[in-house]
Amino acid sequence: MAARASNSVQPGRFRVLKEGTRRPGGEVGGGPVVYWMFRDQRWRDNWALIHAVDQANRADAPLAVAFNLFDRFLGANARQLGFMLRGLQQLHREIEGSLGIPFFLFEGEADETIPKFLKECGASLLVTDFSPLRTIRQCKEKICERVDDSVTVHEVDAHNIVPAWVASQKLEYSAKTIRGKINKMLPEYLIDFPTLQPSSRRWDTTHRSIDWDNLIADVLRKGAEVPELSWCKPGESAALEVLMGNENGFLTKRLRNYSADRNNPLKPKGLSGLSPYLHFGQISAQRCALEAHKVRKSYPQAVDAFLEELIVRRELADNFCFYQPHYDSLKGAWEWARKTLMDHASDKREHIYTREQLDKALTADPLWNASQLEMVYHGKMHGFMRMYWAKKILEWTKGPEEALETALYLNDKYEIDGRDPNGYVGCMWSICGVHDQGWRERPIFGKIRYMNYAGCKRKFDVDGYIAYVKKLVGEVKKRKAETDLDKEAKRLCC
């Protein structure tokens, strides 16, 4: 897989959201280029940044990176925002130090801050990340409406290996229907990244400094209900360490047993551990795939299973959210699934729990309680347990709409990688049968795939998992108590 000869990206990797007016000679205006970074928060292996640098150099224009901090984006708490901001703090230092590209941070609504910044600096081109989520797409539509007619807007899919609009031009029914399309395009898109060079023309104006410490402290205070995690260090360097570190890297130390261990909730280290970094764009899925291909001869089964999750399943989730506007509601389910769920919506439930009871893991099912507590205290529930967890919510709430709303609320509140297409599709698969098929009809579930405690017991050591979570929760509480004591001691001595 050779690198491209130039620093330009394939034409299919970006699309024009708005074509600005051109000069008399037909060229785009010569004002600065601004890269509005959102989903892909890294400077290495970032096609959007590569495209922005290339476009700036072609126009002999300066380049800046802008990031807009939404206020508690889609309910994010200290856990998610702290992780993101600490990663951005490192990125700010590295992108200015290594590339000489200024980094601007704005707070508020991006459809107001970004157009204002473009006007102030006289920009001619805005480069943006791709996101299939409704909130971001609506924001981009407003930005396109509000910027000057001379501004062109390009959207680059630096998150997927095969860009979402290239992989498929329609809503795909399942992994089976999209897999062949993606695999066909991989030879063209799964390529090495060119070496990123500093932009040839520097940004002239001075820019304000960013008080990261106070910003992070404010976010931690406002979102304190869901505190930060200690096991997951943010940033690009940490992400690369998880992927290829000498001590405990996934591809270097833990890959061998991936295909066997990834479905065992008692073996969390059998998973890659990359999802927080992929979600925040602190590592490129393409980099992960390229490095995995290098070791495929040694572990073909494990690498193939990893690439199926990394490429096909992730890109299927983006496809669903991109082409299905109701990706987070019952309206987004297939017709057969909506019908069967509504046919059984009034079926008698053995238990009905409130959202508060579920949040606090106060159910009669010790296995479900353990999965909820793993998410609350660890910030990451094992993938197998997330299926069981969501399906029991369908069984224990008044109807499928409430079940889906509750599952998404809890997922986004506690998961370090919440508010992600994978999370929406995971809940839609479990509760609404998306990307699945109809099964034998039964009460409450109708034809939606069923899971129960006895089935879990046949697959893994349920008691062992419950004990594992209990120990994990105890360790987290102990660390918190020790931290609180240290803070109190410092307060008293000062």
Automatic annotation (TrEMBL):
Entry keywords, A to Z: DNA damage, DNA repair, DNA-binding, FAD, Flavoprotein, Lyase
Molecular function (GO) terms for this protein are:
deoxyribodipyrimidine photo-lyase activity; DNA binding
Which part of the chain is the Photolyase/cryptochrome alpha/beta domain? 31-164
Q: Which Pfam families match?
A: DNA_photolyase
Q: Which reaction does it catalyse?
A: cyclobutadipyrimidine (in DNA) = 2 pyrimidine residues (in DNA)
Instruction: List GO BP terms, alphabetically.
Output: photoreactive repair; UV protection
What this protein needs as a cofactor is: FAD
State whether keyword Lyase applies: yes
* EC numbers: 4.1.99.3
- Main function: Involved in repair of UV radiation-induced DNA damage. Catalyzes the light-dependent monomerization (300-600 nm) of cyclobutylpyrimidine dimers (CPDs), which are formed between adjacent bases on the same DNA strand upon exposure to ultraviolet radiation. Required for plant survival in the presence of UV-B light. Not involved in the repair of (6-4) photoproducts.
Could you say which protein family the record assigns here? Belongs to the DNA photolyase class-2 family.
PANTHER family, per database record:
DEOXYRIBODIPYRIMIDINE PHOTO-LYASE, DEOXYRIBODIPYRIMIDINE PHOTOLYASE
What NCBIfam families has UniProt attached to this entry?
Answer: phr2
The entry's protein name is Deoxyribodipyrimidine photo-lyase
Native source organism of the sequence:
Eucalyptus grandis
